[in-house]
UniProtKB/TrEMBL annotation:
EC numbers: 2.1.1.228
SUPFAM superfamilies registered for this protein in UniProt: alpha/beta knot
Subunit structure: Homodimer.
Highest taxon of the lineage: Bacteria
Native species: Streptomyces spirodelae
Reactions this protein catalyses: guanosine(37) in tRNA + S-adenosyl-L-methionine = N(1)-methylguanosine(37) in tRNA + S-adenosyl-L-homocysteine + H(+)
A GO term, aspect molecular function: tRNA (guanine(37)-N1)-methyltransferase activity
InterPro entries (UniProt xref): Alpha/beta_knot_MTases (IPR029028), tRNA_m1G_MeTrfase_C_sf (IPR023148), tRNA_m1G_MeTrfase_TrmD (IPR002649), tRNA_m1G_MTases_N (IPR029026), tRNA_MeTrfase_TRMD/TRM10 (IPR016009)
Protein name per the record: tRNA (guanine-N(1)-)-methyltransferase
Predominant subcellular localization, coarse grouping: cytoplasm
Gene transcribed to yield this protein: trmD
Amino acid sequence: MRLDVVTIFPEYLEPLNVSLVGKARARGVLDVRVHDLRTWTHDRHNTVDDTPYGGGPGMVMKPEPWGEALDEVLATGEPEGPDQEPPVLVVPTPSGRPFTQELAVELADKPWLVFTPARYEGIDRRVIEEYADRLDVREVSIGDYVLAGGEAPVLVMVEAIARLLPGVLGNAASHQDDSFAPGTMANLLEGPVYTKPPEWRGRGIPEVLLSGHHGRIARWRRDQAFARTAANRPDLIERCDPEALDKHDRATLEGLGWRQGTDGRWHPAE
């Protein structure tokens, strides 16, 4: 997979050289290219922003450097053949579609992603409209809050996407039971995990994990996942498919204070 990032702060993307992403780059699994947007400015101040039309606070990133930068980055791709998929343009923005594990899985299946982390009040809208005419453009938000810029969301998205690629994780099955993994555990959060030593500061670990009984361990983990999800993300319980729950699941939910409504969905008891 190829990843391009155009930014006015290339140094912000240095974490892409470490940990799993850095190792994937070193092995050639990921081709990551970071570009300085100011390379495509033409004044002595390397200006990338200006005041917004219509007034208002803040500055808006100018379309000219973005257009030149994206044109040049896109031109470095191989000539498109009949079966070659064009790159996906990923625009981090608080007003975008929520970034979820489902979207990470979808993007991990693409051969080329181009990220456009903005600063100030964002990028002149005409840039998004221009490239939406020829590319798959995704405006994506990592949460209901506002950051100083889009570089941190790029780091979040790249790590979430990269770990799904073959050859990135040491154990290829490691991500299959992740929280939010599509189609697993009714999209429950993962339960608690433990490692050696068996006792630490007077605290032990659940006996079932020492039993060697894989069926009981799996059941315990699922019960713990329901308990954590009900406490931290009850919305996931309410959205889960009732047909995905077995008899034990239903008993677990009832024990946690949930009841199945007339609509078939599970809701906290009154």
